Amino acid sequence: MPHRPIMLGIVGDSAAGKTTLTAGIAQVIGVDQVTTICTDDYHRYDRARRKELGITPLHPSCNYIDIIEQHLRALADGHPILKPVYNHSTGSFDPPEYVRPKPFVLVEGLLAFHSARMRECFDVKVYLDPPEELRRRWKVSRDCAKRGYTPDEVLAELERREVDSAAHIRPQKRWADLVVRFYPPSQPADYERLNVQLTMRATLEHPDLSGVIARSGNGAAALRLAVGREHGRLAEFLEVSGSVDADQAVAIEEAVWAQRAHLQRLLPGGSGNFVDGNQTRQSYPLAIAQLLVAYQLLLGRFTKEEHARSLTPPGPLARSIASSPDA
C-alpha cells in the first residue's frame, strides 16, 4: 500500500499570505519531505474568458471543484496526480504537472475547505485572516511588483471580488483548526513589525506555552495566552507581539520541542521570511506561526506512524514463537 501523507490545508483570500506561510512551514519540516500544490490551478476559465463571463476566480463555479476533490483524495491516499497549472503571469494554462505525494502534502488556495469531501482529506486546517486593509496593501504590492498591474487596477479588482469573498472565502474560516491573523500593532499602522494572533481551536492538541510567557524590553507583552470561547467553542488565543526578539523566539521554539523531544527541529534561516514588493524581510512572529503549524504536522506524522506500527501483524518468526507450546 502507498504511504498516506500528512495533509495540511491553508485557505485565505487572495494575497492573505498563504504562499509565504506555506514556504516557511516547508523549510521547518524539510523541503525534501514536502509536496506543495495550489488549488488555484484548478480554475475552469482563463483570465480572458473570466472577463467575458463576468465571473471571478473566487466563485466555486469558476473552478473544477469535483476534480479538486478527486485529486485531494488521491494525494491523501498516497497516489500521484496529474495536476493542472494556472499561470498567474499570463492568465492562461501551462502543461499539466505530474505530482507524487511526499510524507507531507501542503495544499494552499482559495477554496480548499469549500466542500466536506475536501475538508475530510486534511489532517490540519489553517485559515489566514488578516485585516482587510492589510490584505489590500499586500495585494497591491504583490500584483504590481510580480503581475504587472497598476494600483488602480488592483483596487478595482478587489472591489469586484468583494461579493464572492464574503460569500465563498471568509465562511471557510469556520472549518479551520488554527486561524492565523497578522495585524499592525498600532495606529497609524506599523507594517514593519506586525503582531500575530493564533486562534488555536480544540480540534487539535496544542503545545503548552505557559512557561514562556515573557516580557519584551519595552515592557509590552511579547507573548500572551488566553483561553476563551469563540462562537460557543473553546479555544486558546495566542498573541505574539511584533516586538518579539531573537532570544524570545528561540525560547518559544525550545518550549515547543521540549514537549515532544522526538519531533525536534531547528528553525532554518528561511523561517519568517516574506517578500514586500521586491524586498525580502524577516519576521519573528511569522516564524513562530510557521513553527506552530509545522509542529502539528510532525506530531500528526509521528502519531500516524505509531498507530500503523500498532496495527502491523507479527512476522512469521514472532507468530511461530507465540504459537509454541513452551512460549
Number of helices: 9
Helix content: 25-40%
What structural class do the secondary elements suggest?
Answer: alpha/beta
Give the integer mean of the pLDDT values: 86
Rg over C-alpha atoms, rounded to the nearest angstrom: 21 Å
Binned strand content: 15-25%
> Sheet bearing the most strands, described?
8 strands, mixed
Uncertain spans: 214-219, 317-327
CATH architecture of the largest domain: 3-Layer(aba) Sandwich
Strand order of the largest sheet: 2-5-1-6-7-8-10-9
Distance between termini? 32 Å
What is the element string, with H for helices and E for strands? EHEHHEEEHEHHEEEEHEEHH
Q: CATH homologous superfamily name of the largest domain?
A: P-loop containing nucleotide triphosphate hydrolases
Care to count the β-strands? 12
Shape: globular
Q: Regarding CATH, which class of the largest domain? A: Alpha Beta
CATH names the topology of the largest domain as: Rossmann fold
Q: How many domains would you count in the coordinates?
A: 2
Q: What are the main properties of this structure?
A:
two-stranded antiparallel ribbon, single chain, alpha/beta, 36% helix, Rossmann fold, 327 residues
Give the SSE layout.
Layout: E1 6-11, H1 18-29, E2 34-38, H2 47-53, H3 65-76, E3 81-87, E4 92-99, E5 104-109, H4 116-119, E6 124-128, H5 132-146, H6 151-169, E7 178-183, E8 195-201, E9 223-230, E10 233-240, H7 246-258, E11 273-276, E12 279-282, H8 284-311, H9 316-323
Parallel strand pairs: 1-5, 1-6, 2-5, 6-7
Antiparallel strand pairs: 3-4, 7-8, 8-10, 9-10, 11-12
Helix pairs in contact: 1-8, 5-6, 7-8
